[in-house]
Design a protein that fits this description.
Elements lengths: L1 H21 L4 E7 L6 H14 L4 E7 L2 H9 L7 E2 L3 H9 L3 E2 L17 H8 L12 E13 L6 H4 L14 E4 L2 H12 L1 H6 L4 H6 L3 H14 L3 E5 L3 H6 L5 E5 H13 L5 E3 L5 E11 L5 H11 L2 H11 L2 E2 L4 H7 L11 H4 L16 H4 L2 E3 L7 H14 L3 H31 L1
Helix pairs in contact: 7-10, 10-18
Amino acid sequence: MKKFFSLIAGLLFGAALLSSAADREHTLKIYNWADYIDEDLLEEFKTWYKEQTGEEVEIIYQLFDVNEIMLSKIELGHEDFDIVCPSDYIIERMLRQDLLLPIDRNFGDTPDYTVNVAPYIIQKFNEIEGSGKNANDYAVGYMWGTTGILYNPKYVTREEALSWDCLKNPKFKGRIFIKDAFRDVYTSLNVALHREQIASGEMTIEQVTFDASDESIAAVEAFLNEVKDNVLGWEADFGKEEMTKEKGWINLSWSGDAAWAMDEAEDVGVSLDYAVPVEGSTVWFDGWVIPKYAKNVKAARYFINYMCMPENAIRNMDTIGYVSAIGGDTILEAVEDTASFEPIDARYFFGEDASAVCVNPVFYPSAEVMARLGMMHDNGDRTEELLKMWSRVKGDNAGYFTYICIGVAVLALIAFLIFNSLKKKGKKHRR
């Protein structure tokens, strides 16, 4: 009976997919990162869209965890996603490869909520090199953050965490996690290593963030070679959790992960903090775009508009823990906390009246900090050289944590083989 009901359920699901495929005019296909939206908003959008347009819409919501996988599905597979959420450098690459449609901001009687995007986000999107196309015509900011140092004040002073040199300090050997994200690490360190040229006016931060020359790659590699003996693990996601357990004292991290770790650590009596090194670092962005193979462009642009409503931006931040690209008084009122934070200058994000506002500096760094941050870019043909460098650095020394994992895996395999062998022998004996 269970098999019968499973078969019926499968047939119904397949029929629903076929129906959606046949009625793409009323189906919105969204491709987004995991855990990156308040999913109640998806269901509520259908009602809102009917109210605004008089049309029905169904949503097919799919997830990806690597920018390049999403890109390959569109670029090579011509997948008909109506809306996707790539990172800054992928937006740049998609613009260069003519993979995006411009976003029409005329919504008839519905207000244009995309005007709520913070001035800083618009300014940074202007820096995206889209082969003559302005990224603000093709993308709308969604979430953003910084790259810096998550640290445990019990073992690491704030002064130490405010410099990338903390990664090289031998007293932190075996206590450092580094994001396994070559572009973030390379660009952040490249900005730091060019701090004198930036300070003297010889180069701008923007010029440095586009730089993937042999000389700069070699300089970053030399720095990382001094760091790698201290590294406990090169991690994609587990570093923040290890920090809450005090297995690591320093984590080269993203601000969103740092904020999550700080909250989790507090619940178990561990104190963590976050700093952006004074030598400079990077700021990152994700944004909504409409790929060129989209079938329901109207619903896609209405969805982008819907996500820019301040109340929806606040709900998203509360649910996923990242910082919305939406600014304005409503957001500021929701995030300001005079009891917890010291006043900082956040005019770059909230406007001229925000010269001394009490907001979380992990989420909204001061204007002074923001002035030393650059944005990551698509390195084009130089990407392969960056990957080779990254492979050399990690390959020469996998880190203690990696070796422990390998050792545990090997022991588990040996135990399995022994157990399996004894099990077979036991069966023969019993027979």
